[in-house]
Design a protein that fits this description.
- With about 350 residues, the chain is an alpha/beta fold.
- About 40% of the residues lie in helices and about 15% in strands.
- Strands 1, 2, 3, 4, 5, 6, 8, 10 and 11 form a nine-stranded mixed sheet that branches.
- β1, α1 and β2 form a beta-alpha-beta unit.
- α10 runs antiparallel to α11.
- The longest helix is centred in the C-terminal third of the chain and has 31 residues.
- The C terminus is likely disordered.
């Protein structure tokens, strides 16, 4: 048995496709799927009608990612837990069977992360080394990374490039977009630190796993697709603030030696990065205000086609027609006037 937990916040369109991909990739294995909704404003009840076999927990307000996860973990007991973002799509057939078999064969692994792809098939840097001082200036969305994307510092802590084909490797931490957790390791290490409202909780959890003697591994032999920011794009300012608050918390928590010497420049660097990101977001909004809003529907259509290519054919079963229709209608739906940036606007 597997507990599969998804925290949703104003991402019902993404969530619908995520659940469809899970159903298609299960191949008979039925996980205990729990969707915990953090006070979303967009409708989610139709999800319950479409997927009657899942559990939906409604929180009255946004209690944060870690608290929402911990509340579910406290009420479940399967030996393996899969955390999945709502803006992901499972690409690999027999996904759950594969990851449970891997964990069975590697009892020393506390957390496992799959290969994570962009909508266009590019590899995301979802497996990394623990953040260092330069990571604050060359993060995934930092200004310097955008100016110097080919810089060695920009990719210094990204470990996905070290993985050969489908071979698993040990890494410091894996992205919370999708991670598999061994219940026994969870019981020893403890739940997520709910002081992390959102962001950095995955880094912190993996650090604590290593501290307790559990390994963290990245296995690109199984894959998902992730719309980066799909769950947080509706509130960009809040996301930027929470990211940097969590960064401060992480370094304050884990730097134990020379704190008086190291923390002041780290705090200054995080503050400088925060200002830079805000400036970048302001410029981007001003720029796109005078241009036609970008559309990502075509990328989503290619994602479903890519999934079909991985399996060599569309899955046989009740979702066969769903996948075909989404692919056929993707380009047509992209003309919908209400399409917002980052939304694939795939109708149900």
């Amino acid at each position: 048995m597997i507990d599969l937990v998804i925290v949703n916040y104003n991402s019902s369109e993404f969530l619908h496709d995520c659940l469809a991909s899970i159903r298609c990739s299960c191949n008979g294995l039925k996980p205990n799927v729990v969707v915990t909704d953090n006070g979303s404003k967009d409708p989610i009840e139709y999800i319950r009608n479409t997927y009657a076999d899942i559990t939906i927990v409604r929180n009255r307000e946004n209690i944060g990612y870690s608290r929402a996860i911990n509340a579910v973990l406290a009420t479940t007991d399967a030996p393996y837990i899969v955390l999945l973002n709502p803006d992901t799509i499972v690409l690999t057939d027999h996904f759950l069977e594969s990851i449970t078999a891997f964990m069975d064969l590697h009892p020393e692994v506390g957390i496992l992360g799959p290969g994570v792809l962009d909508p266009d098939g590019g590899i995301q840097g979802s497996a990394r080394s623990f953040p260092r001082f330069h990571s604050l200036f060359f993060g995934r969305r930092s200004l310097l990374t955008r100016i110097f994307p080919q810089s060695r510092l920009a990719s210094a802590n990204i470990l996905t490039k070290d993985a050969a084909n489908t071979e698993p490797i040990e890494v410091d931490w894996v992205s919370g977009a999708c991670m598999v957790i061994r219940r026994r390791a969870l019981q020893q290490v403890g739940m997520m630190d709910d002081r992390f409202f959102m962001y950095w909780e995955d880094v912190d959890w993996c650090k604590r796993m290593w501290d307790k003697g559990w390994k963290v591994m990245y296995w690109p032999g199984v894959k998902i697709m992730h719309h980066v920011g799909g769950s947080s794009e509706s509130r960009v300012l809040r996301s930027v603030i929470e990211f940097h608050k969590s960064a401060l918390l992480y370094f304050n928590k884990h730097i134990r030696k020379y704190r008086g010497l190291l923390l002041p420049p780290i705090y200054a660097a995080i503050s400088l990065r925060f200002v830079g990101i805000l400036m970048l977001q302001f410029i981007k909004r001003m720029f796109f205000h005078f241009r036609q809003k970008p559309d990502t529907t075509d990328k989503t259509a290619r994602t479903w086609l890519y999934r079909a290519c991985i399996k060599n054919e569309f899955v046989n079963g009740p979702d066969n027609e769903l996948l075909r229709n989404k692919t056929k209608r993707a380009k047509q739906d992209s003309l919908t006037p209400s399409a917002r940036p980052g939304s694939h606007q795939l109708r149900n």
